[in-house]
Structure prediction request, 528 residues.
Amino acid sequence: MQKVKTVRSHRYFSISAGVAGIPIVLVGIGGLIPLVYLLTKAFSAEATALVQIVFRWRNARLFLNTLLLTAGVLTLDLLIATPAAWLTSRVNLKGKRYFTVLCALPLAIPGYVMAYALLALGGNTGIVAQLFGTSIPRLGGYWGALLALSAYTSPYLFLNLRTALLGLDPSLEESARSLGYRYSETFFRVILPQLRPAFYASGLLISLHVLGDFGVVSLMRYETFSYALYTEYTLSFEHIYAAWLALMLLAFTGCLLYLEAKLLNKVVLHRAGRGTSRQSSQVQLGAWRNPAYIYLSLLAFVTVVVPVGAILLWMFRGFNTSALESLLAALVGSLSIAIPAGILCALLAVPFAYIDVRYPSQASKALARVAYIVYAIPPLAFALSLIFFVLNTVSFIYKTLPVLIYACTLHFLAEAIGPVRSSLYQASPNLEEAARSLGYPRIQAFFKTLFPILMRGMLTATALVFLATMKELPLTFLLSPAGYETLALNVWSYTTEAMFAEAAPYALAILIFSGVFVGVLIRQEEQT
Prediction:
């Protein structure tokens, strides 16, 4: 009797896996088929023309510029986030929770809004000139892009390092101290090596943001692969060179993914025993307490107060009530993309999480990583491949809202899988079996047992994708219908013309939405 029950259960789960695998396959096809058209377009030129396209000095310069910007952002983020993470997690400072919030708040400021704020400071009509009567040079080029991207991406490293520091086993430090090591030696020989997974994961995420960035480099006029891809697509007719630039950008991304995987494979940090759940003792800074407060305050001033203050100053100095109508249209345009994309991602994340959690195997892991592969494709390259695909197959939907929602759904699906998967880990597999044993059909059993448990994760996933889509620029720029307005598009278009007062209301609207979202995240973290 037990054998029959096991076979039935196995058959039920096999059928469920097959049903859950259908949307995964469709997402994989939807995300990867456009890349086939990108390859087809890239190799459509004659052999002699291909040699001239691929082996040209400009490509080497673009690669060097992109590499220098990525390395610079990683280095500056390392210098910014590492001390901040250590001070807010391992040091006995007052107000650490408030400094943690301030260090995480730049997540609420999209990169192109950060670039807007930096650009608005300088020049003869900039904020510094208006307030102090002395103009400063307007930032631009490599240094402008470096500062804007570093301020925007540093919270990714800060949050990962802080979490890792809070989770370290205190017995490792105690053992090192008992052997006579000073705290500085313990930090560099024991603590820092334990943080390698956090450094690698954050470094990959920051690098993907830099490679995929279009708003900052275009506003700062710094030519990287993304910026060159945009200009080549808008100015050329055949787009063959644009296709090759997209492939080069994809190759760059693939190298980073491979490097991160190889580095993580060599990391072995788990304990031999069960360990303890004790917290590490807090470090007493003594005479270094005041410099620590100054550092954290200065970091918050540069990454939060300066950009927010710049937006507010331009908002009040050049605000025109006639802009409210256009602001409302842009807000509706952003919501028209973000709401359906958030709901679709939350629904599609369920089968991905289901396969990953319920059927742990090499095949299921590979299927579940399809969304992450699509997410790793830089947005401009993905948008360009989708354009080629649409123009060659269903050209009548080119530059329509459904295509834009489709692209945002595929691109941000990976961000929705994590919360749904976390909820699914809390649900016992026996729940479905119990419902089936009571006579419920498979679909009804799922909605009776698992769906209520998954709802919280799905709501979190919807919120994540919603805010990511509200701030998204490259996909919206290339795929939105003609004349379509969003908050991100208006910030970018006005800022490129140095119309900072006109851009301020849209930047402030993005800031408010993003700030509320970051506040909800921090609040939820405190409750868990």
Observations:
- Confidence is low (pLDDT under 50) at residues 1-15, 268-277.
- The CA atoms of residues 62 and 144 lie 17 Å apart.
